[in-house]
């Protein structure tokens, strides 16, 4: 009985150790990254923000209808023409 309890306590402690080790590893990595970033900036490096292109929906195309699952009037009309659907009703 006592041995089982000891085993459980050990297991929990091992788990804690792993978590703590992971925490330290993460912190080290973050510090390393920051140091590298400072070095990079000190050398005259620049940080460019990646421009995020907004997604433009192209209604009335296969991509929009099939991949994006758009069921707007324009896409539905395309689907009818492309014989993707047989009904004129728009199902939502
Ligand atoms: Zn559409």
TrEMBL record:
<dbReference type="InterPro" id="IPR049191">
    <property type="entry name" value="SutA_RBD"/>
</dbReference>
<feature type="domain" description="Transcriptional regulator SutA RNAP-binding">
    <location>
        <begin position="25"/>
        <end position="52"/>
    </location>
</feature>
<protein>
    <recommendedName>
        <fullName>Transcriptional regulator SutA RNAP-binding domain-containing protein</fullName>
    </recommendedName>
</protein>
<dbReference type="Pfam" id="PF20661">
    <property type="entry name" value="SutA-RBD"/>
</dbReference>
């Amino acid at each position: 009985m006592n041995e089982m309890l000891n085993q459980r306590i050990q297991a929990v402690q091992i788990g804690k150790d792993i978590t703590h080790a992971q925490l330290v590893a993460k912190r080290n990595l973050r510090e390393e990254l920051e140091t590298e970033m400072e070095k990079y900036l000190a050398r005259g490096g620049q940080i460019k923000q990646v421009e995020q292109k907004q997604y433009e929906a192209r209604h009335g195309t296969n991509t929009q209808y099939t991949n994006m699952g758009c069921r707007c009037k324009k896409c539905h009309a395309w689907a009818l023409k492309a014989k993707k659907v047989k009904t004129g009703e728009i199902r939502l």
